[in-house]
Specification:
The protein is of the alpha+beta class. About 30% of the residues lie in helices and about 40% in strands. Keywords: Chaperone, Cytoplasm.
Length: about 90
């Protein structure tokens, strides 16, 4: 891929229930990170965007190393050129 690309990943992050809010706050403070949902059982649904595979790997690693994170499981990942990502699709 070239320089103008977009990588998108989704993760399920698991922590103890008492740490969900603190960890969610740390994740949303990261660039291009969104916490879409949290559960009382200590799970968070997160999406990340990055401009390259190494940048995405670093963001995932940063989440894995937050104090209190038990696991950060990659659920989905895709990458494409910005042109392809911005292409208008016709209605079906």
């Amino acid at each position: 891929m070239g320089l103008d690309e977009l990588h998108i990943a989704s993760l399920v992050v698991h922590t103890s229930p008492s740490r969900v809010e603190r960890i969610a706050a740390q994740i949303v403070a990261m660039p291009d990170a969104v916490v879409h949902a949290t559960s009382e059982r200590g799970k968070l649904v997160v999406t990340l965007e990055a401009s390259s595979a190494p940048a995405m790997s670093l963001r995932v690693s940063d989440i894995q190393h937050i104090d209190g994170v038990m696991s950060a499981a990659l659920v989905y990942q895709c990458a494409d050129s910005l042109d392809a990502m911005n292409e208008e699709l016709p209605d079906a």
